[in-house]
Design brief:
Elements: H1 2-52, H2 54-73, H3 76-83, H4 93-114, E1 122-131, E2 134-142, E3 149-158, E4 161-169, E5 172-173, H5 174-188, H6 191-208
Antiparallel strand pairs: 1-2, 2-3, 3-4, 4-5
């Protein structure tokens, strides 16, 4: 009888431990999804304010307003490593730092150029899911007189912090496009040429304003 009771006690302890483990796993997953959603929605909130104040800010003002939130919500170091592909390992520390910096500047200039006005748009989060250890946040830009634009964000956790590493607009991966373009330039023209092209692109956005 005592042996039977001991077996029952061990079984109950196992079931309780399993239930606690599953609860912890579920709680951690929910917290991660919530954190990823929060990162994207913080970025969208700041971007929307820049759109609303677009005329008064001007191009340089929009860039200045966007830089802090971009630095906080995007993992430019990881993005830089991915978009340069196998060439990343051939860059020294100075080149890597330089590329990360100019890529961040280009991102701010691109958003400042593309989101240069407000016509009643709003950002809507429509889903959050785990994707191979990363988080995918699905969103829409709702437009009054046009079809919505789908914007999906892939986030990766580094040092315990979730940040954006890719933006997929209407099914097109920005990371894939840039990787194809940048690696081609690095292969045929070299690092300095790529940096020069990115600098020229930033200037063209400013002139276009």
């Amino acid at each position: 009888m005592r042996q039977k009771n001991r077996k029952m006690a061990k079984k109950n302890l196992y079931l309780i431990s399993l239930a606690l483990f599953m609860h912890c796993q579920f709680t951690m997953a929910a917290e991660n999804l919530g954190a990823g959603k929060g990162v994207v929605e913080k970025f969208h909130a700041e971007l929307l304010q820049v759109m609303i104040q677009s005329d008064s800010l001007g191009f340089s003002g929009r860039v200045d307003a966007l830089v802090p939130v971009l630095m906080e919500t995007f993992d430019f170091a990881t993005i830089a490593r991915i978009v340069t592909g196998q060439h990343w390992k051939n860059l020294d520390d100075h080149q890597r730092s330089k590329f990360i910096a100019i890529f961040g500047d280009l991102s701010a200039a691109t958003y400042a150029s593309n989101f240069d006005g407000f016509s009643g748009e709003n950002f809507e989060t429509i889903g959050v899911e785990e994707k191979r250890g990363n988080i995918l946040v699905r969103t829409l830009i709702q437009r009054i007189d046009d079809e919505p634009v789908t914007l999906d964000y892939l986030l990766r956790r580094n040092d315990g912090i979730w940040r954006i590493v890719n933006v997929i607009a209407n099914g097109v991966s920005d990371l894939s496009l840039k990787r194809a373009d940048y690696t081609a330039v690095l292969k045929t023209e070299g690092f300095d040429s790529l940096v020069s092209k990115l600098s020229d692109k930033i200037v063209s956005y400013n002139i276009g304003e």
